What we know:
This protein is an alpha+beta fold. It is built from 6 helices and 5 strands; from the N terminus they run βαββαββαααα. The protein has helices spanning about 25, 55-65, 95-105, 110-115, 135-140, 145, and strands spanning about 10-15, 40-45, 45-55, 70-75, 85-90. The strands form 2 sheets. Strands 1-4-5 form a 3-stranded antiparallel β-sheet. The chain has a two-stranded antiparallel ribbon with strand order 2-3. β2 and β3 (about 45-55) form a beta hairpin. The protein is elongated, with a radius of gyration of 17 Å. It starts with 8 loop residues before the first strand and ends with a helix.
Amino acid sequence: MAGQRSKNTSTSIQPNKFNNDGELESYLSPEYILDDFNYTFNRRMGDYILNFETLTGMERITSYISNKESFSLATLLESGVGDGTWHASTYIVLSDIDDYIQLAKNNPSTVCKILWEPLLKDLINKELNTVKIEEELNKKGINKDNLGCE
């Protein structure tokens, strides 16, 4: 993948337990900043898509997933003036069908996006060991109609 890395960019992948909403420093703890983060960033149909390569970061993500631990990915672009621009996202591990059911109750629009995502249609979901996430949810009474998907 052709990636980019700005000398003015810092990215971290860290356990979510350290994060305080709105506080940049809590999302970019020095011990979690990655030296090997290469990325491409695109926008598709109103969604932002981040593709990245990072050996260290993937090792962390794999560990968080194995431990069913939520984590964040945060990036700071230092502008040279003031604090710069930053963004952080929290990732919650969906390790079994019950996690999807809980997500459907708490945030149905996220499940709708998962079900409509073309990139996920033919991929095997590692945690559910199936390609048919929608079918598994249908068995549990969760479908696009009762989620309110458009």
